Amino acid sequence: MYERDPAYFDSIMCSYDRDAELAAFNYSELCFVFDYLYGYPGRGILYEDVALESVGLDQALKDFGPVGTRTKELMLSTDWADYFMGMIRFNMLVDDGGHTTMSVSSHSDVNSNPARAWISARMSGADVFAKYFSDMGEVMARVPSTLDNLEGLMSLSQEMLGDGRYHTQGDTAFYSMNGFVADKGPWKEYYENGGSFDDFDEPIFMGLVSSMNKAQNDPNIHNFVIDLSTNGGGSADVLLALISLINGDRKGALQYQNVLQGQNITQSFLIDRNFDGKFDEADADVHYDLNFAVLVSQESYSCGNLFPSMFRDMGLMVLGERSKGGACTILGLNTADGFYYHISDYQMRLTNDNWEVIDGGIEPDVKLVKTDADGNKDYSDFYDLALLSNLINEYYAK
Q: I need a surface site. Which of 94, 216, 273, 305 has the fewest CB within 10 A?
C-alpha cells in the first residue's frame, strides 16, 4: 500500500498546478482512511478535542473552527505550495508523537524539475509563516514535540556522566540507548559472509551487547541499567533480541489484541542469542548474571514504552518516570499524488502479559523526578549512578 512509482509521481509534479479532480480525490481518500483505518489507540489534537473517531475527519476539521476550515481549504487547493502547507498543518492536528505522520519530505526533492523548484522556492520565502501558520500558535504549542526535553536530558546525561554510551561506577554499569535500531549492513555482511564476531562493528545494538559482555566479565559489576530516557522507539526485532538476551529465552514474543475480532494473539520469534547464524540449543548457553534495570522518562515512546512493559512482566526493575506510551501497529500509505504518510493502525494493539493495553505508558517502580513548586522538573537523579546502585540493590534484595 505504500510502494511508490517515481515516474508516475514525477509526472504529476511536473505541473505548476494540481489537478482539481485529483485534489478532491486525495482529500476524500484521506477522510476514508481517518474515518475507518485510523486509531485504536488514537491520539492528537483532532482526536482529543473534536472526537475525530466519532464524527469523521471532514466534520472534525469543521468542528475545530477557523484553523480546521483553513487547513481543509489548503489541502484541497490546486496550488502545490498551498497543498504542502495544508498537509503540514494537518500533521500538527493529528501528530501523536511519531506513529501518525504526514511525510512532507516525500515530495521535497527538487531535482531538475523547474515546476518543483518553483514550488520549493515558494515554500521557503520570508512570508511563509505569516501566510500559512499565523493562526496556528495554540496548536503548535500543543504538538507533542520532544526536542527540548530530549536535548535537556541528553545534555544533563553528558554533563553528569561524560561522553559515550557506556559508563560504570562502583557495582553499576549504565548504557544509553536512544533508539531500538541496528545498522542492517554490517549484520547482513556478517551473516552472509562470516567473519569474526569479535570484530563486528554495529554501533547501537551491538554496542549494547558488547557493554553487557564487559559488565558480565567484570567481577565488580553486578547491576546493569539500560537507559531509555531519550528513546523514541524503533524496531521490534531489535527489542526482542535484547529481551531474549536478558531473560534467557530462545523465543521472543509479542502480544497483541485484534481490535476487530477481540482475539488475543501471541507472535513468537526464534532468536539467535549467540549470533552464530544458527537456531539451536547452543543459544540457551548465553547468560547474564546481572541485576537489570531500565530507566524511562516521558520521552520513552513506542518501543521505548514496550520495553519497560516487558521488563515489568519479567519482574525486572523500572526506574524514572511514567513512559510516554505508544504501543500500536502502524500502517503506511500514499495519497494518489504520492504523498507518503503513516498512521496509528486500527487493527492491532500491543498488550502486556495480562492482555492489558499499554499505550498509556508504564509507571516506574521507583520515581526519580523531583518537581519544584513551579512545576519544573529535576532529572539529575536519573544519571546519579551511586543512587541508582543503591536503589537497584534494594529492589533485588527483596
A: 216
